[in-house]
Specification:
Elements: E1 2-5, H1 10-19, E2 24-26, H2 42-57, E3 61-70, E4 77-78, H3 91-102, E5 111-121, E6 127-138, E7 154-156, H4 169-175, H5 177-189
């Protein structure tokens, strides 16, 4: 099956392609500009991105939206994870803002989860939707050199004390929110 990638984030696109190896993944159409993530939910933003790419490419499009939900921050940054430090914030700026907001939070209260919604939208309007969640904590410092986004501060409960950024891609994908969502999506597409 041919799927057109909605993500413009090269790190995320590569991670998704590694998870959907049985599909012919094509890159996002280069002429498609930014897609405004205007929805208030992960599902809504994933759907908006996939539908826009589906229309442009006239082919099934795959998209996701992911949020980091920190309990001590009332679930923030959540749906605004990519824009936590501002509309065009870098990963470093978002990470810095998170660590600053968490600096006085005790270890036992640093619980968090990553949540992903993955979707394929077809030209005939059909949709296939999947969810993935991984529970963990936020470390007090950035650790590791791999990954992107908040990976260097997120310690999954199943990670033996390591952040996602301290794991190789296969280790991370085996337990990550995105790995779970896209494995579920692939199973549904079969």
């Amino acid at each position: 099956m041919r799927l057109v990638m909605a993500s413009a984030n090269p790190n995320k696109a590569a991670e998704i392609a590694r998870l959907l190896t049985e599909y012919d993944i094509e890159p996002r159409p280069p002429e498609l500009g930014d897609i405004l993530e205007s929805e208030q939910t992960l599902e809504g933003n994933a759907r908006v991105k996939a539908a826009a790419v589906c229309r442009q490419a006239n082919a099934a499009a795959v998209a996701d939206d992911t949020g980091l939900e920190v309990d001590a921050l009332g679930g923030m940054p959540g749906v605004w994870s990519a824009r936590y430090a501002g509309e065009h914030a870098t990963d470093a700026a978002n990470l810095s803002k998170l660590l600053e907001r968490m600096q006085d939070i005790q270890e036992a209260e640093r619980t968090a989860r990553f949540r992903t919604v993955a979707i394929v939208v077809f030209p005939d309007g059909r949709e296939v939707l999947a969810h993935g969640v991984v529970e963990g904590t936020i470390s007090t410092t950035s650790r590791g050199q791999r990954g992107f986004g908040y990976d260097s501060v997120f310690v999954p409960n199943e990670g033996h004390g390591r952040t996602f950024a301290e794991m190789d891609a296969d280790e991370k994908n085996a337990i990550s929110h995105r790995g779970r969502a896209f494995r579920s999506l692939a199973n549904q597409l079969r």
